[in-house]
Structure formats: structure tokens, C-alpha cells
Amino acid sequence: MAAAESPSAALRRDLCSRGIRLAGKMRADVVDLLDAYVEQQGLDASASVAAVEGVPLAAVERWDEQTGTQRLLENLAAYRAFRALLAQMLEEQREQLGEADAGLGRALAAVLLQVSAFAYHLEELLRLESREIPGEEEEEEEDGPPPLPRLSLFEQKLRGLGVLRELAQWAVRSVRDLRQLAKPSPAASTAPGLAESP
Amino acid sequence: DSHVQYERVGADVTMKCGSMDWDAAVTWTANGTDIDESHLNGSYLILKSVDLSQSGQYSCYEGSSWHLKYQTYLRVGTPPKEPVLMCRSNNYPKGFYCSWHLPTPTYIPNSFNISVIHGTKDMVCEKDAIPKNRCHIRYLQLFSTVKYKVTLTVTNPLGKNFTTLTFDEFAIVKPDPPESVVAKPVPNNPRRLEVSWQNPSSWPDPESFPLKFFLRYRPLILDQWQHVELSDGTSHTITDAYAGKEYIIQVAAKDNDIGTWSDWSVAVHATPWTEEPKHLTTEAQVAETTSASTSSFMAPPTTKICDKGAMVGSGAMAVCWTAGLVMAAYSVLFI
């Protein structure tokens, strides 16, 4: 059963393992950031935040039936969106900056860096699957472009809460997705993606 | 005409004898036993401040003809208190179950109704046949930040009550404890114990949703537990056991990323390997013990050659030594 692994299968497994570690670290940092954010912004941690436009929802139906490529593409789209959202939050944070928020700004920047790194990592995995990396312009074809109309301070804070919560969910989902991808099974990817054996 | 009548503990109950007039002559019985007239007001039966022992069949007979005029089954009980509800996912990511019970009995039949809402969506919680007070739900979505709201309403003829639980998908994940925990001594290692276990069988996909484990152990003679957290694998070797002491060992499990720890597994006991005195009685048996990992090789009775009684002059030493050499040769063959 344990036939010799092809180099690309080994690389894929390695990339998945590293991605899992990245996502795990990212999640831990996002959870810490969420706690700090709630406290510093004076929010109620249990407040329900309605789905915010432009924030990718981690919730998915029939997750177990997704192909490897679907997983990678959805993850990539999500983290690209988070990259833009976090950048915006950081900018808003700097505008409101007080001494107390400097730490929050740094934590936001650190998470933004990890999100960017993870997005890049996903692109690597897609390349390995011989998949075309979708251009980022596709994400901006919606009516509401990422730079949304000016929100009130309170609305900004609520949106920030929504962004970080979804990001924390995504980090968990990404770990699961990568574990599925790492499985040495033909069902882990679409047929064209199995271009491993020469 | 027979029917059931429910009354609260402590209530005053008045029973009419069907359509009989108030001044009719009647006899009341409780479970076949005549009731004293002091409890009657005309033909009405008056039961003051009823208690549970007064539940039973009450019958009213016309005085002279002994025709049965009325019969009722009195059930004394209480309205339900707020039920206790618990929801848990021990089979993530398949779904979760909710189970409930009443904190105190009502002594009369209760019916339970459970509703589950996820955001704006109503979900059906399918009732389990066994146990009765339990239902399960399949997850339609995973990784949702939208909370689940579960409302349990309990109703009986004397009243109703309800409770609500709100939680998110990750918070209720709690695996069952690990199974088949085994602890064994390690031969020739007086401070080691080898512990192994299996994933709980209710956890559907440990490959995609790996569990991590928490091991705790202590010698029976001490109260303080030692703890070890293990991020993978289903075995661990304890290397700091006190020699010769019996240990109690338990394992708990948790999803690697979300939820809470399981309850502790069934406890197992083990004592590290000790060097038994009988292992040192003869050179031959020492050679055998240190070279063979199983005890299938039994020392032949060559020790008799070295018995005191067998020693004859200086030649006996040479014989003993030869026997030892032969034994060593045999031992090497069995490594």
C-alpha cells in the first residue's frame, strides 16, 4: 500500500503540513487579537454581528464533498478579502489612534502579515495542483468595492468584530481543508489536478 | 365513566359523584377500600391538601343499589420545574445531540418538545429511541459563526416550563473518552510504564479531525497527579514511575483545534517491572532473563550440576562453569 511517493505528492504533503502550522498559529493570534479588540473597543464579546458585506463567511454546506481545488480556491478568495479588510481596519485604527491602541495596531499588522503569507502559501498549493491562480481583480467586480462608504465609528468597530470572528473561523476551516488535501487519496483533488505521475 | 384527573400536591380536591345530586346517598372507595364519611360533603368527596400517596382509583357507588356511578383515576403530581438541557457534539463534524431531564420528578406524565434554530433556519432534532430524553441533529453547515438556539419545553397536565441554550458550533464539541486504555510494565525497566489507547469509536474521522490527548497518572499511595499532553499518537511511555508502586492511569481526548476535553477514561492500573528475587537464584536463570525477551525458554534443570550436593572435589567447579557456558550458548540462540 505504501508505494513510493512522487516528488510532487511529497511536496504537496509538505506544503499542507506547513500550511496547517501557519493556519494554526494564525488562528491563535486572531483569537488573542479578538479578545484585545473586544476589550479595547468596548464591545460585548457575545454581541451578534449580522453578516457584513464583503466579509467572506467560513460557513459551508457539504464541506466534506468539496474537491481539493474548490477548497484551495475558496480559501484563497477568503484570505485575499481578509487581507484587504484588515488593511482597511489598520488604516481606520491609525486614524483613531490613541496610545492605548498602539498595541492593537501592532497586533492587527501582525495578523495581516500572516494572512498575506497564508494567501501566498495557498497560491503555491494551487500552482502545484496545476491550477491557474485567479486574478485578484475578480474580487472587485461586486457593486460594493472593498473601500466601503464611510461608516460611523461604532459601525467600524462592529464590522471589525465581524471580520475577526470570521477570520478565526476561516483559520480553523483552513486547517481542516489542508488536512483533507494532505490525504493521499485520489478524491482529494479533481482529476486534472492529479498531474503528479509523469 | 372512567377518566384521569390530575391534581397538584397540596391542592384541595372535590370529586362529584357523576350526575348524582348533592344530597344523594353514596359510598366512595379509594382503590377498593371504603372512604370514611368524614371526607364527604353530601355526595361530594373532599380531599384536603392531597399528597402523592393519595393517587389511585376513586369510585362512587349509589347508596342502595351499589351501582357504580362515577370512577376516576386521581394522579397527584407537580407542574414541571425548569428542565436541565445539555447539548454536545461527540461525533464532530457529523452533528450533535441534546439531552435533558427534569431536576425533580413530577410523578405524572410529561411531554417534551425541542426546537433548534440556526440563525433563521428551523432544524429538526430527531428523537432517539434510546435513551428517550435525547435527540440528534446533523450539521448542515460547518464553520458557521451563527449560533444555535435550542429551546426545550416540557408540558404536563399541571403546567409547563422551558429552558433555552445558545451556543456556537465549536463550543459544544466534546469527544467521548479514549477507549481500550492499556498500561503495561516495560521489561527490565523499573521506572517505565507503556500506556496505549484508542480513539473513541464515536469520533467519526480521526484522520481529518485528529484528537489530542491528556494523560494523567499517579501512584495509588499519592494524591498528586502527573500530567502529560500529547498532540499526536495513541501511546506514551511513562519514564518517571516510582519503582514497584502500583499506578492509576487515565486518558482524556480533545479535538486538536476546537471544543473541550472529554471526561477521563476508565482508570487502569499497572505496576512497573521489578526484578523478582527468583530471577537471581541461579546464574543460568540470570543469563536466560537478560537475553530472552519472552519467557518461553525455560531453563533446563542443569542447575542440579552446580548443587552443593553434586559438588565432588575440584572437578565440580569445572562442571559448573561448563554448564554455564552451555546455558549462555543456548541463550544466545534464543535472542
Describe the structure concisely:
The complex is a heterodimer of chains A (198) and B (335). Helices cover 60% and strands 1% of the residues of chain A. Chain A contains four helices and one strand; from the N terminus they run H-E-H-H-H.
Can you walk through the features of this model?
The complex is a heterodimer of chains A (198) and B (335). Chain A is an all-alpha fold and 198 residues long. Chain A has a domain at 13-45 and 67-131 and 154-182: Growth Hormone, Chain: A (Up-down Bundle). Chain A contains 4 helices and 1 strand, in the order H-E-H-H-H. In chain A, helix 2 (68-95) runs antiparallel to helix 3 (102-128). The relative contact order of chain A is 0.22. Residues 291-324 of chain B have low confidence and may be disordered. Chain B is elongated and about 95 Å long. In chain B, strands 1-8-7-3-4 form a 5-stranded mixed beta sheet, with no helix packed on it. A 4-stranded antiparallel beta sheet of chain B has the order 9-10-14-13, with no helix packed on it. Chain B has 335 residues and is mainly β. Chain B folds into 3 domains: 3-77, Sandwich (Immunoglobulin-like); 84-167, Sandwich (Immunoglobulin-like), CATH 2.60.40; 179-270, Sandwich (Immunoglobulin-like). Helices cover 8% and strands 41% of the residues of chain B.
